[in-house]
C-alpha cells in the first residue's frame, strides 16, 4: 500500500522546520549551494511519509517504478546561514501522465524572508526498463488530491512564481 492517508485528508502543502548544519556550510557561513538539494529532498521524503503515509521504498517494491529527476530550476534569493532555523515548504505544482513538478521553497523561521526556490521535474519510470511509464491510478489519484489548484503551469514563468511566493509570504506576515 503506497498511501495510508485518505485522499480527502491529504494537504496540498507540506512544511518542515530544520536547522542549517555547520557541516553543510561554506567558509562564508552560508549553506553550500549543492546542499540545498539535500535539505529539500530530505524534507520532502519526511513530509510525504508523515502526511500521506507514502513510502518511496513501497513504490519501488510494489509498483517496480520510481521518479527520476529530469530537470532542476533553482534561484538562490537570500543565503541560509549556519545554525539558522528555516522552514522548507514543498508542493506538487504540475503533473501529467508521466511527469511531476515539485516546488520547494525555503524561508526564515518566521516565514517572512524567502531564501530559495526550486522546481524539480521528475519522470515516472519502470525500474525494469528505465523507460517512462504512465502513473498508475493510485499515484494519479494522489497527484490529483495534492497538486496546487489553479496554477496554469504551462504558462507559468519561474521568476513570476518567485514573485508570487514573496507576495504570499508578505500577505501571511501582515495577517
UniProtKB/TrEMBL annotation:
Keywords: Hydrolase. It comes from the Bacteria. One of its GO terms (molecular function) is hydrolase activity. The keyword Metal-binding does not apply. SUPFAM superfamilies: Thioesterase/thiol ester dehydrase-isomerase (SSF54637). InterPro entries: HotDog_dom_sf (IPR029069). This is Acyl-CoA thioester hydrolase. It comes from Dyadobacter soli. The lineage of its organism: Bacteria, Pseudomonadati, Bacteroidota, Cytophagia, Cytophagales.
Amino acid at each position: 500500500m503506497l498511501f495510508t492517508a485518505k485522499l480527502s485528508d491529504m494537504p496540498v502543502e507540506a512544511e518542515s522546520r530544520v536547522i542549517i548544519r555547520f557541516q553543510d556550510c561554506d567558509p562564508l557561513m552560508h549553506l553550500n549551494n549543492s546542499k540545498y538539494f539535500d535539505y529539500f529532498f530530505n524534507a520532502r521524503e519526511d513530509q510525504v511519509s508523515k502526511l500521506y503515509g507514502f513510502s518511496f521504498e513501497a513504490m519501488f517494491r510494489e509498483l517496480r517504478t520510481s521518479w527520476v529527476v529530469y530537470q532542476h530550476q533553482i534561484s538562490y534569493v537570500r543565503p541560509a546561514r549556519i545554525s539558522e532555523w528555516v522552514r522548507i515548504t514543498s508542493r506538487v505544482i504540475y503533473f501529467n501522465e508521466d511527469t511531476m513538478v515539485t516546488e520547494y521553497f525555503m524561508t526564515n523561521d518566521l516565514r517572512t524572508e524567502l531564501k530559495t526556490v526550486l522546481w524539480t521535474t521528475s519522470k515516472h519510470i519502470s525500474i525494469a526498463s528505465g523507460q517512462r511509464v504512465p502513473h498508475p491510478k493510485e499515484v494519479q489519484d494522489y497527484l490529483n488530491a495534492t497538486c496546487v489548484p489553479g496554477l496554469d503551469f504551462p504558462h507559468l514563468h519561474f521568476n513570476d512564481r518567485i514573485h508570487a511566493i514573496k507576495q504570499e509570504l508578505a500577505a501571511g506576515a501582515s495577517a
